[in-house]
Design a protein that fits this description.
Elements: H1 2-11, H2 15-37, H3 55-89
């Protein structure tokens, strides 16, 4: 019973990284969509509500998320390689 739990724990080490990378990729997709839909504001003379969204803010946020994704991939790569090596030996 102990070996099974140890093996399960060993195989599940990559899962948190994978989930977080997928969440960040989803955020990145939303930001990319916002960047593509950003256009110059129309002057209607009517008061605008809400917070103004700047293209520069979206670009900065996109860069930060890309950096986080790259760091997570770099941290998780050795774990993934170790797991796939073990699976290949089976």
């Amino acid at each position: 019973m102990g070996d099974f739990e140890t093996n399960k724990k060993f195989l599940r080490r990559y899962r948190p990284y994978f989930r977080q990378i997928k969440r960040l990729e989803t955020k990145l997709f939303v930001i990319d969509d916002r960047i593509e839909s950003t256009h110059s504001p129309s002057m209607t003379g009517q008061p605008g509500g809400g917070k103004r969204r700047e293209l520069a803010d979206d670009l900065i946020q996109r860069e930060e998320i890309e950096g986080r994704i790259n760091r997570l991939i770099k941290k998780s790569r050795p774990i993934k390689a170790e797991i796939t090596d073990c699976l290949d030996e089976l």
